[in-house]
Amino acid sequence: VPQSELEEAINAIEILRERGARVHCITNSVAQNFTANVLLACGARPSMTVSPEEIEFFVDRCDALLINLGTLDLERRKTINSAMVAAGRRKIPVVLDPVKCDISIPRLDFARRLIGRHALLLKANAAEAAALDGIEAGCRVVTGKVDVVDEDGRRVAVANGVPLMDRLVATGCVLGALIAALCAVAGSYRTGALAGLLWTGVAAELAAPAARGPGSFQVHFIDALASLDAATVREKARLS
Amino acid sequence: VPQSELEEAINAIEILRERGARVHCITNSVAQNFTANVLLACGARPSMTVSPEEIEFFVDRCDALLINLGTLDLERRKTINSAMVAAGRRKIPVVLDPVKCDISIPRLDFARRLIGRHALLLKANAAEAAALDGIEAGCRVVTGKVDVVDEDGRRVAVANGVPLMDRLVATGCVLGALIAALCAVAGSYRTGALAGLLWTGVAAELAAPAARGPGSFQVHFIDALASLDAATVREKARLS
Amino acid sequence: VPQSELEEAINAIEILRERGARVHCITNSVAQNFTANVLLACGARPSMTVSPEEIEFFVDRCDALLINLGTLDLERRKTINSAMVAAGRRKIPVVLDPVKCDISIPRLDFARRLIGRHALLLKANAAEAAALDGIEAGCRVVTGKVDVVDEDGRRVAVANGVPLMDRLVATGCVLGALIAALCAVAGSYRTGALAGLLWTGVAAELAAPAARGPGSFQVHFIDALASLDAATVREKARLS
User: Fold this and answer.
1) ipTM beyond 0.95?
2) Chain C neighbors (3+ CB pairs < 8 Å)
3) Which chain B residues are Cβ-neighbours of C219 within 8 angstroms?
């Protein structure tokens, strides 16, 4: 990985902190509170409405859009479709997190249609990515023990993070939201994805040693996201 | 500010702690959990259903009603209308928090109709209050660096609180719910509002020095809300 | 209480930790996040969708089902009916938590119909249990200062737990979800219920002395749920 990629990612983190970015999140009801708190900790400004009557007013004022398919229902589907049109018109970055699309066929079909119709960043775990295999996405992040960003065959792997993240609900969901915020300031899906993986992965590494379990890990994780500095990201980044 | 106003506010805090109050909250899905935990920490008893089929059973048993317009949708609109009728019949206090009504025109219209039809306490930030300017509300709380309670031109300013509150989602939402609980025991919107601003503002000041970021701030804030005593509120109150 | 009952309950805790269990939770929006985090802390794997279009895909893959009637609405009713049919077909354990059915008549009617139609474990507080009196449930857990498990007249009482649990929202809701997970591995409602009461009650006793209020109590409680060992449960269990 060229050193310049790391520096661009760190730069995106610093710009988000200084200038902020408004991220509209259509996300599942389990993750909404944690997602909003992570965005605020990192300098972004969240909005979270999921109603079709109001969505355009919010997308018309935001800098990035997160579409997370957890707790998908008919209202969320309608809202997502309207939001995607509004985001396309405004050419803002869109991150799609097709949560558990490997389990539900209607959800998988819905995710496929979204990817086929819009240029977006797809963030998925291995099972979800496998279910969506063969669908071309502009940029793809596959999370796991090692996370991989893949844009048109140019791949970069990030080996940061800790196992405790799997004992906390919605860590993947908040990653998607943070990547959306970072894409808005970075101007590129690839840099936004890399910055989001580094920021959450390194913050988790700082939080874990002080944690006595998943409860205190969450508290330390949010604190670390808010206070992490460029030098620490640079020192701890494990890219290849 | 007459000393008696401060003492009435402190009195309301102590009564809520001793006797409790049932607050029904029609609030956004992002704030529900934090709101319920803040009410419980302060001695109130929350209920949170938002379905039109059941709302009357809950409003018929509560001592105060919170209407928060975050994540507004058609079901919440229907429920709010029924709840307002039931609250009016029972003459219990109602607090309206018109979250982000400055962004969504349908939400602004809905907020205007509610205020026009019912005597309630309006709690808003500066942008929301400006969007609703010209609408008469019985009592108005405008939050900001300094919070202002305005009832028929009698104004009181509260300068408590810390900047970290803006890094935590829904601190404004929980303030509205706590004010509703305090109005129920105080018997006056003005005293309830003052008591809620003091209780959250002073608790935040106690929590902030021990916090290493927004994650631990939330934990300390809830602990401080539960343990705050009258002497500390009296000592730290900054009213003018 | 025969010593063997305690050992079977401890055994269930250890099996859940080692092998895990997938629990689908149709639960209220206030409790979703805390419920998912408690299940993950204890080794279970939660899913939380409440939409009727997708529910069968999730119930077809889970090992136990939680039905919690908080924030009940028309969509949740429809989803619960479908989920119960799918769970019955697969013969997986079902836990029903009829939250606040003593307040809402339509909710009480709905709870009655569920109990009449399906063999399930009913977990309720005293007021909810009284409202449902006379309805036969296979196994019944009534929570309070002392919790009681009653299966066909064979009763066992659990006196673990701390008062601080009442200052935290949804502790009863998370207990129901954990019992569902434990029933899946124990193969019996009675052992699952006993294991869930012991695990949460003893974890709360470990968490309380370190807590300075309900905020830090929640953090310590989740940590304790994740780290509790068999020897401590055995030592602190108060069964009669």
Assistant:
1) yes
2) A, B
3) 219
